[in-house]
Hints:
The complex is a heterodimer of chains A (281) and B (276). Chain A has 11 helices and 10 strands. With 281 residues, chain A is α/β, with parallel strands linked by helices. In chain A, a hairpin with a 2-residue loop joins strand 4 and strand 5. The N and C termini of chain A lie far apart (44 Å). Chain B is an alpha/beta fold and 276 residues long. In chain B, strands 6-7-8-3-9-10 form a 6-stranded mixed beta sheet, with helices on both faces. A 4-stranded antiparallel beta sheet of chain B has the order 2-1-4-5, covered by helices on one side. In chain B, strand 9 and strand 10 form a beta hairpin. In chain B, helix 4 crosses helix 5. The model of chain B has no long low-confidence stretch (mean pLDDT 93). The chains are: A alpha/beta (281), B alpha/beta (276).
Amino acid sequence: MNISVENLTYIYVPGTPFEKVALENINFTVKSGEFVGLIGHSGSGKSTLVQHLNGLVKPTEGTIRVGDRIITGKNADTKGLCFTVGLVFQYPEQQLFAETIYQDIAFGPSNMGLSEKEIDLRVRTAMELVGLPFELAEKSPFSVSGGQKRRVAIAGVLAMEPKVLILDEPTAGLDPKGREEILRSIRNIHKQMNMSVILVSHSMEDVAKYCDKLLVLNEGKVMLSGSLAEVFHHAEKLHKIGLSVPQVTLAVHKLREKGIAIPENIFTVSDAVSAIMNLRG
Amino acid sequence: MMEIIKTENLTFGYEDSQKKVLEQFNLTIEKGSFTALLGHNGSGKSSLAKLFNAVLLPTGGTVYVSGMDTKNEALLLEIRKNCGLVFQNPDNQLVASIIEDDVAFAPENLGVPSEEIRKRVDDALKCVGMYEYRLSSPQHLSGGQKQRVAIAGIVAMRPSVIVLDEPTAMLDPRGRKEVVETILRLNREYGITAILITHNMEEAALADRIVVMEKGKILLDGTPEEIFSQYEILKKTGLDVPQITELSYQLHQAGLNIDSCILSVDELVEQITKVL
C-alpha cells in the first residue's frame, strides 16, 4: 500500500510558551512493497512522524494519504486505520498485558470483529511468522525471554494483517543474535506478505543490510532521502548530524581516497568482499 | 597489578528459580583496567554487575571489592562508595530537578562536608563534560547527556570502580559516542577502573580486556584481538564481531593475504592497500 506525505508540519502545543515545531514541511512517499529505513538522532522527529502515519497524531498542516484514503484534514477517513497501518512501538514488550501469549496476540484481531476460527488462524500464522513455536501459546508472555517477549508484541501487530508495518527501533537492547533474528523475520514477513515496511533504526549497518530506501530526518526536516547509494554518498553530511555510514562503506571510501578503483556503492560485508576480491582479478 | 574486584567460586541463583545464574564463577579485575563484559541476554552479566556492589548477595562463594567481602553488612556503604553502578535507562536514574543537585545526591547521603560536595560536583560534571548544564533541569537533556549526568553522580562518590550495564543501549549514535568517550576518559585520565557490559562489539573493541560469559560461566577471556579472532566461537554463542573484523575475516577466508582479525577501519585499509 502506498503512503504519501505532503507538506506535513506538526507543531507541539501551539500557542503556549512550550510551542515547538517538531516536524517541518515533510514530503515523502513509500510505495507498495518498499522497505524503507528511517534514521536520525534522538529528537529529530522520527517517532512523531511514524505516529502520524496511523492517525495517532494529527498534523498541524499537510496531507497524508494511505492507499486511497486521506487520513488528515476535516474529512479524515481514519476508521480502522490502526488495522491497516501496524505500528510497533519502541520496547513493545512493555505493552504486553494478557494472561497468555495466545490471548495477547489475539487482542487486535478480536477487536476487528473476526470469527473465532479466523482469529485462531491469525494467531497461529503470526506466531509462525515471528518464529515463536506454538507450544508457547498458553504460556504467560511475562515468563519468556526478552527477545521472545518482543516477538509476541510484534506478532500481536502482525495478526491484524496490516498492509504497512512500521517498527520503531525493534532491536534496541537485544543481543546480536536476537537482533539478527528479529530483522530476518521482518525481512521474511515483508517478502511473504508483500507489506510496505518502515524501519526506524540507529544502526547504519542494519538499515544498509535490510532497506531499499532511506529517509534521514534532522531537526524535524527531511535532510536526505533516496536509495542507499544516494544517501550514503553524503558521508560528511551524515557525520555532521551525528550519524554515519556503515563501517564497510567507510572502509571503501578510504580505499577510494587512496586511489584504489573500488566501486563507491558498497554497503554490506558480502558486497565488499566480492568487490575487493574482484580487484585482485 | 593490584586486584580491585575478585569473585571466588561465586554462585548465584534467584530465589524463585532452581536455575543457577552464576556457578563457581571466578573473575579478577585489575585496578585501573577497562574490561568489557559480553554475553547474550540471560548469560548472567547484569546479575554479576549487581553482585559487584552488593545490590545482590552471593548464594555461594564470595565477592571482594577492594578487599571487602560484600556479605559484610557493616561495610555496605563503603562497598557502594567504592563501586558505582550505571544502568541502561537514563530516565530511571536521575532524582533531582536540577542537574547539580542530582550529582550531589550521593555525596550528601554519604555525609561529605558541603564545601567538599561543591568541589566534587564541579569536578564530576567537568569530567563528563556537563559542567555548563549544572543549573539546568535534566528533563531537557538528550539521552546521552542524561547518561553522562548519571555517570557524574557516581564519579562524585570518588569510586575506584564504575560498572556500566548497557549504558548506551537506548542511545542514538551521537549519544553512544559521548558516553563511550566519557568512559574512556574516566579510565585513562582519572584512573577509575571501568567495567562495561554491552552488546555493541565496536564498543567492546575499545576495552583492554574482554570477558565473554555464557550460561553463568566464563567462555572467553582476553584482549579484543584475542577474543575477536575466535570468530566461530563468538558466532556460535550468538555474539558477533565488529563489522570491520567481519570483513577482514571474510577477506582472509577468501584468500586475501591480510590478518583475519582487524579491529579498525584504518588498519584494514592499510593492509588491503599493501596486498592489492
